[in-house]
Write a structure and sequence with these properties.
There is one protein chain. It contains 17 helices and 25 strands. By secondary structure, the protein is an alpha/beta fold. It is globular, with a radius of gyration of 23 Å. The N and C termini lie far apart (51 Å). The chain binds 5'-O-[(S)-[(2-aminobenzoyl)oxy](hydroxy)phosphoryl]adenosine.
Length: 534
Amino acid sequence: MSAHVDTFARDHLPPRDQWPELVFDLPELQFPAELNCTAELLDRWVDEGLGDRLCVQGQGVRWTYAQLQAQANRIAHVLVDDLGLVSGNRVLLRGPNSPMLAACWFGVVKAGGIAVGSMPLLRAKELVQIVHKAEISHALCDVRLADELAQAGPPCPTLAHVLHFMTERDGSLEARAATKPARFDTVRTTADDTCLMAFTSGTTGAPKATLHFHRDVMAACACWPRHVLRPTAADVFIGSPPLAFTFGLGGLLLFPLSVGASTVLIERPGPDALPAAIAQYRATTLVTSPTAYRAMAGQLAAHDLSSLRQCVSAGEALPAATRQLWKDASGIEIIDGIGSTELLHIFISHDESHARPGATGTVVPGYRACVVDDAGRPLAPGQVGRLAIKGPTGCRYLADERQRQYVSDGWNLTGDAYLQTEDGYFVYQARTDDMIISGGYNIAGPEVEAALLLHPAVAECGVVGVPDDERGQIVKAFVVLRAGQVGDAAMAKALQDFVKQAIAPYKYPRAIEFCAALPRTETGKLQRFKLRSG
Ligand code: 3UK
């Protein structure tokens, strides 16, 4: 059963036998057949009389739940009444994080549409790929990102309607919304209607779109936040991941709203601006990447961070050195968690009192995790293999053959090499295709990085395997030094000796290149393929 008039998403789901097995074995994972996640995350609080509670803040904006709901309702009216949106249509959302972008997300999903986020830095060429793949009919775009989308426009025949926001000019989304009623009947979708298409931040090949249902959104809220983070209605979330990245969508919008808390959505949440913003908004819960924690650790003294209570890291492995640096600077134990676009959010993590440096944590309630060999057989503790996950959410690519690579035998294979300890902790090694094989040894680049990061001269680093006639590959480190340090032969030798002392000597970087910065994606991930080819 579906409430969608436009059945595109349902028509392009993978065949049922290629889905992961879905498990709903917690009481909080029982969902009704009819479900629109916006009714649960937004309307519910207003219905319960809590509409006056603070909901979302950003540059010059401070909205209560009732105000966000009213704005989302007006946007839903614009989409449906003026732009002919029918349920199941895909709507591209574009903009840096802001309360208005959040209102657009809720407006689309309330109207039964499918929200398709796009990373702010995408170029026309990449936008065209997304519009084609998702057959997007409508776009709501921050006016400051209008140019790139306009260039994408001509080769995109399906894209019939584009409205701009963050501008009051005639015909803008805001101007139209202002003429609409603040009430809108949230479309009564089914639990397994798609509400969200998230494109993966994959580094190679054509982009993949993952399909997530209204039920998946609520399941994500019921697992990691409820069991690990355990926020309260008094919390104020803040952080950096874009809402187009499901790490940001969950961590900065869905999860705070699921408990009646508030969130701060700022446009330029770099490590130089975040500490001041935490102080300004008295934020309690910080959501960002390992590199941002490392970059911020040195700058905390100048700011009043007394409001800060919890810090979440995801997107890349959290090196033990970064955990310690942040703890020394802030007094707070970071909560690490691995999630993926395919599984929507975090499935292995730990709370503050169960942190173990160098490990990602234990499986999040609602999920199952194991480490398997290439044939899919479970491995014993301590053995390195592929991470396999099952739970209430799972991978469903939109019309993509690569479904068979991510899902095998009902398990989601994330592409990560992990080992599990006797007591159930999962220890990240590397992406499976990033393992370095040198002179017959398997070496995980992140382990060498973690060792280098312990050296006081190292600001950031990336370690990859590069071709070598004699050894097949050798370990090469790209190192960004802290200000004032000199990248000469003596420094290279010092770093090599340092690594040999810290971990098994055969893992030391035989080549070291000093550089000014490392290539990263907008989701904060190191682009190893660029280091290998560069
Ligand atoms: C890597 C990690 C070690 C890992 C994401 C939280 O990152 C997210 O989604 P993506 O699809 O990438 C998934 C891949 O990223 N990774 C993420 N977190 C960690 N590796 N430790 C970690 N803590 O390779 C994984 O397979 O971009 C993260 C929530 C939602 C997300 N989409």
